[in-house]
Amino acid sequence: MTAFLAAIGYEQWILHVLLGLPLLAIPMILIMPVHRARWIALTVALIELVLGLGLWWAFDPANPAMQFVTDVPWIGAFGVGYRLGIDGLSVMMVLLSVITMPLVVWSSWRSVDTKQRGFYALLLALKTGMLGVFVAMDLFLFYVFWELLLIPMYFLIGSWGSSNRLYAATKFVIYTFVGSLLMLVAIVWMVMEVGRATGTYSFAYEHLLAHAYLLESSGPWLFVAFALAFAVKVPIFPFHTWLPDAHTEAPTAGSVDLAVILLKMGTYGFLRFAVPFFPGFALSESVGLVMAGLAVIGIVYAALVAMVQPDLKRLVAYSSVSHLGFVILGIWGSTVESVQGAIMVMISHGLSTGALFFIIGMLYERRHTRKISDFGGLARVAPLMATAFVITAFSSIGLPGLNGFVGEFLVLIGAFGRYPWLVAGATTVVVFSAAYLLWATQRVFFNRFTNPLNEGIGDLNMREIAVLAPLLLGMVWIGLYPGPILRRTEGAARMYIEMVEPYLSETPTVGGTMFRGGR
Amino acid sequence: MLLGPSLALSAVLFTLGVLGVLVRRNAIVVFMCVELMLNAVNLSFVALAQVHGLGGQVMVIFVMTVAAAEAAVGLAIILAIFRHAQSVDLRQLTLLKG
Amino acid sequence: MTSLVWLTILFPLLGAVINGAIAIRRPEAKGLVSLVGVGALLGSFAVAIGIFLEVLAGDGTATRVLLWQWMPVTERLSIDLTLQVDRLSTVMLLVITGVGSLIHLFSVGYMKSDPGYARYFAYLNLFVAFMLVLVLGASLPVSFIGWEGVGLCSYLLIGFWYEVDANSDAGKKAFLANRIGDFGVLMAMFLLWWHVGTLDYDGLARQAPEVLAYAGAPVTLIALLLFLGCTGKSAQIPLFTWLPDAMAGPTPVSALIHAATMVTAGVFLVVRTGVIFSLAPVAMEVVAITGALTAFFAATIALRQNDIKKVLAYSTVSQLGYMFLAVGTGAWAAGIFHLVTHAFFKALLFLGSGSVIHAMHHAQHAAHAHGDAQDMRLMGGLRRAMPWTFVLMGIATLAIAGVPPLAGFWSKDEILAAAFVRGGGNTIYLVAWGLGLLAALMTAFYMARLMAMTFFGRFRGGDTLEPHLHEAPAVMTGPLVVLGLLSIVGGVLNLPGFAGGSHYLAHWLEPVTDATLPYLDRLEMPHGMTELLLVGGAITIALVGLALGMWTTLRRPVLTPAATPAATGLARVLEGKYFIDELYQKVFVGPTVWFSRRVLWQGIDQFLVDRMGVGGTARVAKGLGWLGSRLQNGHVALYLTLFVAGVVLLMRAVIGGAP
């Protein structure tokens, strides 16, 4: 496989094709008849999937540096370039996006029956944005893709969402926009200041990374600006209240894309930009404590709040906040193990939460309600759906043997050295996560069959099985054999740790934790 | 020749125009006051052209052309407003209120 | 054969997958389901016997079988899916696959008419697979897969009849209680990895003593955290309340999961990580006293229960307490010994009660009557209709009560003797021994009461039912007979010296338990007069308890539920199970939900963050906008005036200094 890919020059064109194809397909969707729109979108998604999967083999896990690098001047006068590249972190995110894409299109097959052209065109635009964020190696380009995502998402929520969609869409845009404007200011400021110091004005990631240490006095402020932008996106408590609204009101496709990809952009930003640029400040004792503390508060708090949600989608939205807290904790845990775990949580949260949103979407399609109390005893009429939901729920709970456990375990064990008490707090969530998901599962799929309206809902059809099956298989695979993924992300995690290590206050070693010098 | 008086007259005319624009309510009168301002400026252009060369006179031609176009468009708008509101009293036209 | 140990897991796993597929596609294909479900277990059992024979011939060194690298993260954290076959896991392997096979066989008859037959076998097979992962895992994380997996299956099987809300509740409760324990196991793993640097059982046994100071705070905390996990899984104080509720599941499930195998996982784990416990004497005391207290309190509750399965459930909790008492004294072999014999006689008791419930249920069905098929007050005199069940349950009763020479006597006696010996130098162990002794008395009492209410006297379920009572089919009584035989002879595994044995099981386990020897005082088992006194006392207690139980129950007619007056005083407390459930509900569950809803969600999330923070920002922006919009009143004149004023100011600024 690797040889074949090298023979066709895969690494020279793949990233451009992945980015360009969806954009090229948009005019096609707009000029072709309406009923072709979903077919075009699906075709593009499948082509992207087939092409994108090649990354799995073409990517060289042994090489921790950026691969598949492209560097073409774009706006030369300002040092802006069309710079692309991927490492172990981005390759996983890109794979996750290309795998989600066909599923998202397919899941919308029947549920979207109005303004189809617009819907699928926006989905494709969203796809380019998602991929772009993860492969851009130029901060200007990164910002363009970052904002490019916002607009399709706004319209997806605002036009195809449910009852309270405009409120949710506006909240989503304003929230994230405020954050990203701060980031834009920070990026421009950085480029100018680094430019003044080095004489080279460039938005190139590598250039800024190499010289970020020059920004001594402004470093903290720039970090705060970056961190706010990313914290809103993750979201970290207390910047999370847009998420339940956006998730709840968005159409299934939007919710899934939000959960699988958009939330990861925030954590990706922390790993790629915010912390490596300003490690001295970001990983200082006080800032570290604040970030890890907020992460743990978010983990436990969101789990508790999820427990009492009457709306199924809102419950899953809060569970996202809880899971993403693990990623932040892993990043600030600052060991290879915890960072690997953070990446793993990013991947497996995509699978589990994506699947949960798909299933809730299928329920919504049938019953036009998401209220937990409207259901009950569905396992009798929809056994397959119940099975899929239970498996997914347990993967989200973190049952060992399924995907959720691997990431959480690595984050917790890795971060334990630096933050033993915070990790102890975060570990309590094993109880709460089981509580909210099992309680919801029980009230939807088990218990007495109370609502006669649910009688005719019918089980999963072949299309829906095809949407869920890859995700379920992925859960088991990652749960039992995460090695191939871990090997691919190891280089990135190691690079990251090597970058930040000199700035860590004290490297925890085996033997020092809750009992410093206890042995 | 007569540079000072010409500029003074121009200033007087311009001020009259401005005051007219500010205090009159009838859109047509306001419009005519705008024309007055334009012509006041024209006068100063012509007067100054004596000192600074032909550029000022060229500008006058420009201004007159633009003023003609503006008159056409402006009167059309006023006409449309009249049809819409049955009035050209500016105090009643507050559709753009915030 | 040993290298094929993964087959024992693969068979039931495949069985689960196939039966799951059948459950979805053709749930009516029950013959195929039975074949796959029971066949998988028998295959597993056959492999287990092969492994056992090999281990028997070996010298006791552990064989490790690497399946694949599970989490190869860094050099210092690389977790492999490795299975470890040693003498301890072989014992567990045999018990699980052996008793498991019998219970699968029994289920074929018991669940015959259930529409969820295929689903049931899928879950049951899956359970066995996970249970084997638990006992065969060579490191804590691998065992943890099984540890949580059996919790999952337990959840699914307790809530098997999910359309009854109470069953689903019970399943959820079981999983949550287990998860509280899992918090402890996870934390213990984190501490172990950071302090010792490995999670392998082998590595821990070797390196933990070098790194962790004897009786130091770290090792004590680690041991206590591990034990927290055990209290969840093995239903000990304070997390025992889920097990009685777990009786909502089908009765064979109660036999397999909630008596013979899963709930003993905690005991297994303590023995597996024995070195860590032996380094922490305080933790050992906690384990022992918790076990003894649980044995005692659960036994008192069992005295006043009328549901036949509830009695057995509390009895299980109580017997598990004995096992923890054993391992808490460092008598590892005694704990495992009781685990094995208990698996025999308690599985027998549960299956026997299943047979009774089955008969009651069918009689009610045939007579078109409705009633509680598990309430002993509606039974009575069943020995006539169900002689086999009666005799076999009688054997199990004698075994659990501790009547020689049945299996339970030997194992329980061993435990009490160990506690007594330890009690010589430590009051805590002496108290534990006393509690254990009292619990033994009560065990004999409530078991005799159960037998008397169920099998003796007059049938109280109504005349219409009586002619419909029948003995269970052979597929159900067959496994009972086998278990009955095992309950009788099970004691030979570890016969003490005075009975002509040589503590075979204890010696057999030595390769595993020897690592703890340097950190434990040697248990000098009593000899001569003391030994005879202890043994004689135990026998007396058992007999007195049995006689008392029989006598008090049969002395006057048992009242039917309708005629039973409300209990008062201590009886009410016991019937209400000390109101622990209500207490937990009021103190933990209710306030947590209230706090989450009112304070966290509505208070902080909706009001503080969303309304005040986000909404407040929006309102500030809106207010500023309103102020600005006042200027834009629509009057062109005002705009122009402002414009002119602006121009004048600008000109003034540009032209500058001129007055």
Order of helices and strands of chain B: HHH
Order of helices and strands of chain A: HHHEEHHHHHHHHHHHHHHHHHHH
Strand numbers in spatial order across the main sheet of chain A = 1-2
- Using CB atoms under 8 Å apart, which protein chain pair has the greatest interface? A-C, 68 and 67 residues
What is the percentage of strand-forming residues of chain B? under 5%
Structural class of chain A: mainly alpha
Largest sheet of chain B: none
**Average pLDDT metric of chain B:** 89
The best one-word shape of chain A is globular
Give helix % range of chain B. Answer: over 70%
Description:
The complex is a heterotrimer of chains A (519), B (98) and C (659). By secondary structure, chain A is mainly alpha-helical. Chain A has helices spanning 2-7, 10-31, 37-58, 88-107, 116-135, 139-160, 165-198, 205-211, 219-233, 242-249, 252-277, 279-282, 285-307, 312-333, 336-367, 378-381, 383-397, 403-415, 420-427, 429-445, 462-480, 483-500; strands at 67-75, 80-86. Chain A is globular. The mean pLDDT of chain A is 91. The mean pLDDT of chain B is 89. In chain B, helix 1 (3-23) runs antiparallel to helix 2 and helix 2 packs antiparallel against helix 3. In chain B, 80% of the residues lie in helices and 0% in strands. The radius of gyration of chain B is 16 Å and the shape is elongated. Chain C is globular. In chain C, helix 15 (332-366) crosses helix 18 (407-423). Chain C has helices at 6-25, 30-57, 87-110, 117-136, 140-158, 165-195, 201-211, 217-233, 242-245, 251-260, 265-272, 274-278, 281-302, 308-328, 332-366, 382-385, 387-401, 407-423, 427-455, 474-489, 504-508, 510-513, 528-554, 569-575, 580-631, 636-655; strands at 63-72, 78-85. In chain C, strand 1 (63-72) and strand 2 (78-85) form a beta hairpin. Chain C has 26 helices and 2 strands. The mean pLDDT of chain C is 91. Chains in contact: A-C, B-C. The interface between A and C is large, with 68 and 67 residues.
